[in-house]
Fold this protein.
Amino acid sequence: MARKHDLIPSAPWYRIETDESDWAALPEQTLVQLYSQMKLIRRFEEKILDLEKAGLVHGPAHASIGQEAAAAGATLLLRPVDQINGTHRAHHQVLTKLVNAQTEPDFDIRTQAFTPPMSDAVYRLMAEIMGLTPGYCEGRGGSMHMRDAESGVSGTSAIVGGNIPHAAGYALADKVLGRDGISVSFFGDGASLQGAAYESMNIAAAYKLPVIFFVENNLYAVSTHIDDVTAEPRIASRGPMLGFTGIECDGMDVVAVHRAVSDAIGIIREGRGPVIIEAKCYRYFHQSGSKTGSEFGYRSRQEEQEWIVRDPLRLAEARLTSLGILDNAGIVLIDERISATVQSAADRLTEPVAGSNQLRIPDRLWPSAQTVDDGILANASETDGLKYRELEDYAPDRLEKARFVTAAGEALAAAMALDPTIVVLGEDVHRLRGGVSGFTRSALEQFPGRVLAMPIAENGFTGVALGAALRGLRPVVEIMFGDFCLVAADQIGNGIAKVRHMFGDGFPVPVIMRVRVSPHTGYGSQHSGDPAALFRLFPGWHVVSPTTAFDYVGLLNTALKSNDPVAIIEHVEFYQRESLVPRDERDFCIRIGKAKVVRSGTACTVLATSAMVPIAAKVAEETRIDAEVIDMRSIGQLSTDWPLILASIAKTNRVIIAEQVASGFALGRHWIAEIQARAFDDLDHEILHVTGSLSAPVVSAVLNKAALGSAEKLREAMELITENA
């Protein structure tokens, strides 16, 4: 007869409950700090709601009133070197982290007013929420996107769950670089059900990363109660199910939160991290603004009143009074000092409208409209001093033949030898003698500890790479098949592409994504795509598509020295091909944004990408059409080599764009519009565009071939465009 045995998690899972004795056990100054920080959050949020009602906050105001204990109890234990991030509702965590970074160890609000640096932190955060230049991100981030690296705020994300992988990445960077830092990702019950949350927790557990996943379970994701969408609403259970500690605590009790975070830090220091903390709390208002949930009908007034009775500030005042630490006069004094600080910040950011009692924002505080596109990419001068070379710069006796994948892998390993911040992340990169393509073989042989196996979780590990890049690593992410970029599209588009501009520029985002594409191999519709167009949608990405070993090595080296994110599109057809590279030299660079004429001609210009580059050169020779073939190489939105392209068009007066990809993912339609605008007077013929079919490639060999741009299609285009020349 079958027997059933109860199974238990391999990691602890427990709830912390505190009473007055736990409050009494903490130093008096700590208790006063915890209380005053909660009061600061409350008064700050109330002022933000006032400003929002007055029309002075452009965008949402996600107040955290009711959740003050969760933020104050957690952040007081963190140092500036410890990193945090949050989601759209993060004013409270960011505010306390910013102020704490400016607070002297002996500060006591009972005897001191806020110092100028502390007050300035309040002022600058308020300015950011209002979208103004004095803000930490110069007003670009606003309420939901906040960053101040010096204070340990690495950046919040308005995408629910989007911030969680980043914190695992901060922790990965700390671990690889040997730093004594702890990272905390704050998020809510809604985000806890996101795939990115699970993926990040699993990666953090696999590598024992020093990160705390802090869940503010306020029961509602906008209007949806957590019981409506999961059969296991005890969110701390996610940790033990993945092999790490889960702690539950009362999120309305600041000492309970403080104790939970203290426990978590101890666990991490013992090498047993990460930890998930679930703080059960309640937001007193609706998702955004100053109305209550009951006004929208998804909560009852009775439920709201039951939680208001448990107001974390009231609880703290009762405890501190009972312990004899504060009396009513002391409570009033703290409130007055904090309220004055908050009001002073608001006064600095507003002025009265002449002849009325209304307020307005002074014109001098708005950012200039002319700066709207500043900071999308790093300053190009950062890479001016690199060792730029082209193949023609080398004497023939300096060159040797090498396989594309071998030379590329050697270049990566050589770069890793010089730069200890380079790490490799991807699926199977640590096995099969260098992954499925053999690309990481040299790196794996020399630096096995920096070639990191990732689960099949592209969105998760791409987000981890972003977090790691923001904290000093240069991650090289391998995407096994191009279509899998769509799985990671959130982190590619909402994350990596936008953070530099969104957070006000001035910091590096050195992520490289190596993307293998193999449309010709019969893997079918979900493994045959070329996602270059996805990356090109976002100007914050450089996109390169090398066709020779020389070009790959040069572009890879530039990418590894760039402070911008770079997507490298690798066509599998080139992997085993041999081409010329410098003998015993793998450190040269090719400037991103530099195309190359691979065949000179006067009859027409062929702008070719990837596999169509050698095909175009071959078709020109076979047809004896004097076509000028340009290998685009750099295909990002802001890195097209227009000087070279326009010079060629002025010479030939005819243009063909040749791509292998399905027409819907073709880049040529963008280039056609640009060419019409830039070179209309030089055109003697309509621009022809050779692409694949409407459909994605499928398995059938006949249909697979028909779905791709080909030599036959290009030959027809060349003959058509030159027949009456």
